[in-house]
């Protein structure tokens, strides 16, 4: 090798090294950017809430949890969620219904025994169904919260459908559902005002023909100066269910429980009569509160609880006798 060739060799090596390092650096930069971007893309995990649901999905060949018991399945999901959280990824939790999934696949013409079909169904469930964010709690602790949210979502959907299909008022041609909701909002505020200062737990139950009852729960705190604190979402569902009861002609009732740690709780009740709330007597409140709603059997009264009559609530004036919800 000549001296000229020997002198040129190190430079050639350096140039070759630079050429090989350039693509590697770009690959590393792209990988890091992809990781950062992945943290900003939310994910969804659909949970099978019962052992029966897990067994129903295990019949699919591609289902990844076949052969596991339900607790083992939930533990594996816990591990997956912890891994995602450690990577800075946000995950929303929803419920997976195998029966609805099979119907969805039939209606859309897709193969239920494919991972992409399950992913597609999960995406569509998330847009319309109940979801809660993963906060690091175990799924066994989060699942009751998710199930409660699903019940609230179902209640909201059913009550809203009743209002939207209520039609027009035959007397004034007003929107019956809209008027009933306004009526229910006034009833809620007058009821809380009548209960006075304190922490109140209020339940509205409406009987829907041919279906399970609509049930809405609301927690409210009224301060001595008249200020009122309540959760907007709870109040919205409560008023929607109460309005649905008005459109159905008053099939249901409302029970309040005012919490008092020192002197004992007070329970009062009202029935839906027509398009307003009518106060129950103390005996009627006791009977309603101390009867099993499913079996009709008597239930022992709680110690330290006073069963009091409902408070009369003045009804608002309407231009026509039947306006305001019925």
Secondary structure tally: strands: 10
The percentage helix is 40-55%
Contiguous uncertain segments of 5+ residues:
1-8
Distance separating the two termini: 105 Å
Specify Rg, calculated over alpha carbons.
30 Å
Oligomer: single chain
Q: Strand-and-helix sequence, N→C?
A: HEHHEHHEHHEEEHEEEHE
Mean of residue pLDDT?
84
Provide the structure class. alpha+beta
Largest sheet: 7 strands, mixed
Determine the strand fraction and express it as a percent band: 15-25%
Coarse morphology: globular
Helical stretch tally: 9
Written account of the structure:
- Strands 4, 5, 6, 7, 8, 9 and 10 form a 7-stranded mixed sheet that branches. The protein has a 3-stranded mixed sheet with strand order 1-2-3, sandwiched between helices.
- The radius of gyration is 30 Å and the shape is globular.
- By secondary structure, it is of the alpha+beta class.
- The model is unreliable at 1-8 (pLDDT under 50).
- The longest helix has 37 residues, at 3-39.
- Helix 6 (139-164) crosses helix 8 and helix 7 (176-195) packs across helix 8 (232-247).
- Helix content is 48%, strand content 17%.
Q: Quick recap of the structure?
A:
The protein is of the alpha+beta class. 48% of the residues lie in helices and 17% in strands. Helix 7 (176-195) packs across helix 8.
Sequence-ordered SSE layout with sheet pairings:
Blueprint: H1 3-39, E1 43-47, H2 51-57, H3 70-86, E2 91-95, H4 98-108, H5 115-128, E3 132-133, H6 139-164, H7 176-195, E4 198-206, E5 214-222, E6 228-230, H8 232-247, E7 252-259, E8 265-273, E9 276-279, H9 282-289, E10 305-307
Parallel strand pairs: 1-2, 8-10
Antiparallel strand pairs: 2-3, 4-5, 4-7, 5-6, 7-8, 8-9
């Amino acid at each position: 090798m000549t001296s000229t060739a020997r002198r040129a060799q190190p430079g050639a090596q350096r140039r070759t090294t630079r050429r090989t390092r350039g693509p590697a650096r770009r690959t590393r930069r792209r990988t890091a950017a992809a990781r950062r971007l992945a943290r900003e893309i939310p994910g969804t995990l659909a949970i099978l809430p019962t052992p029966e649901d897990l067994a129903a999905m295990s019949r699919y060949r591609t289902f990844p949890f076949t052969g596991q018991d339900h607790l083992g399945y939930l533990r594996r999901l816990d591990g997956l969620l912890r891994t995602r959280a450690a990577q800075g990824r946000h995950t929303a939790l929803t419920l997976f219904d195998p029966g609805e999934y099979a119907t969805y696949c039939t209606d859309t013409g897709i193969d239920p025994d494919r991972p992409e079909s399950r992913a597609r169904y999960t995406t569509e469930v998330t847009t319309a169904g109940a979801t809660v964010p993963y906060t690091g709690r175990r799924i066994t602790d989060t699942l009751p919260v998710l199930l409660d949210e699903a019940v609230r979502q179902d209640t909201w959907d059913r009550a809203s459908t009743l209002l939207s299909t209520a039609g027009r008022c035959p007397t004034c041609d007003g929107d019956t559902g809209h008027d009933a909701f306004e009526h229910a909002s006034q009833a809620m505020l007058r009821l809380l005002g009548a209960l006075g200062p304190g922490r109140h737990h209020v339940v509205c139950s409406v009987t829907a023909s041919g279906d399970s009852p609509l049930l809405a729960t609301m927690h409210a705190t009224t301060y001595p100066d008249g200020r009122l604190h309540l959760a907007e979402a709870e109040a919205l569902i409560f008023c929607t269910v109460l309005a649905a009861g008005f459109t159905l002609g008053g099939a249901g009732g409302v029970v309040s429980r005012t919490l008092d740690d020192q002197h004992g709780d007070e329970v009062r009740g009202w029935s839906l009569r027509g398009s307003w709330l009518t106060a129950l007597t103390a005996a009627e409140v006791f009977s309603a509160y101390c009867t099993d709603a499913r079996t009709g059997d008597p239930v022992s009264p709680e110690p330290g609880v006073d069963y009091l009559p409902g408070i009369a609530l003045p009804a608002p004036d309407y231009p026509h006798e039947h306006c305001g919800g019925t």
